Amino acid sequence: MNPVLRHRTIALAGLFQAARLVQQTATGADREEAATTASLKSIFNTDPESVAAVYGDCGNLVTGLEILATQLGGRRRDLELTRHVLLLLHLERKLKSNAALLEQIRAGIDAAREQADMSDLLHPAVIAALAGVYRNTISTLQPRIMVHGEPGVLADPQSKDMIRALLLAGMRAAVLWRQCGGSIPSLLFQRRSLLECGRKLLAEAVETAGARGGGAGV
User: Fold this and answer.
1) Distance (Å, rounded) from C-alpha 38 to C-alpha 33?
2) Is the distance from CB of 77 to CB of 203 less than 8 angstroms?
3) CA-CA distance, 170 to 164, in Å (whole number)?
4) Residue 53 CA from chain centroid, whole number
5) Closest CA relative to residue 136, chosen from 172, 94, 175, 102
6) In sequence order, which residues have a C-beta less than 8 Å from that of residue 22 and are 6 or more positions away?
7) FRET pair for 66, CA 20 to 30 Å: which of 85, 151, 207, 209?
8) How many CB atoms lie within 10 A of CB 109?
9) pTM for the whole thing?
10) Closest CA to 55 of 15, 4, 14, 5
11) What is the 3-state secondary structure (H, E, C) of 19-84?
């Protein structure tokens, strides 16, 4: 497998995964905890040894790789999810040239990391800190990402914090995508290659996740 293509596919899967978790949160659907933890952890992994290390391993990207296969290869694509992904990629291009906002994001993530070190990653205080980073930086860029869902869920402060934290995770993946040489045009021109690589990674991810879970046939 081409290493560059593999890296881009991992980054894109991370982006799709964050976008799906945002949808699950906004609609009040059951959110996948393992995927949520992996996506949020990626925010703090700012100096990884490798692209794969951002998410631990492909077993933590099963959700994202499944969505990638559907979005790039399926006939019935989720248009809202597509909009979120394209907007994150667009906003990342704006963000990379704004040194002040980038420094503010780094400082905010460092502060949230200290909280995460003292408590659970999914603790409301940690999620609120990450949400604050998104709200005070990326959310100030135009166009803003509009998330639709259940009114009661969207009105809940903790749900809003989780949505913003997951959008920050999506931005982390968008940054990784660019660092791997990805671009918005390459989503079109490399669609088939990304789809094929994603399917191979999904098979690898399912095997990894299964091995991690253990168990025996009956």
Assistant:
1) 9
2) no
3) 10
4) 14
5) 102
6) 84, 147, 163, 166, 167, 170
7) 151
8) 18
9) 0.93
10) 14
11) HHHHHHHHHCCCCCHHHHHHHHHHHHCCCCCCCHHHCCCHHHHHHHHHHHHHHHHCCCCCHHHHHH
Q: Using the 8-state DSSP alphabet, how is residue 37 labeled?
A: H
Tell me the pLDDT tens digit for each residue of 103-161: 999 999 999 998 888 888 999 999 999 999 999 999 999 999 999 999 999 999 999 99
Q: Any idea how long the chain is?
A: 218
Tens-place pLDDT, residues 148-185: 999 999 999 999 999 999 999 999 999 999 999 999 99
What values do phi and psi take at 145, rounded to 5? -80, 125
Per-residue pLDDT at 1 exceeds 90: no
Q: Domain 3-213 belongs to what topology?
A: YcfC-like (1.10.3890)
- Domain regions of the chain by residue span: 3-213
Calculate the alpha carbon distances from 70 to 16, 37, 65 in Å.
10, 22, 9
Q: What tokens were used for 149? A: 């869902």
Which residues, at least 6 apart from 113, have a Cβ–Cβ distance to it below 8 Å? 44
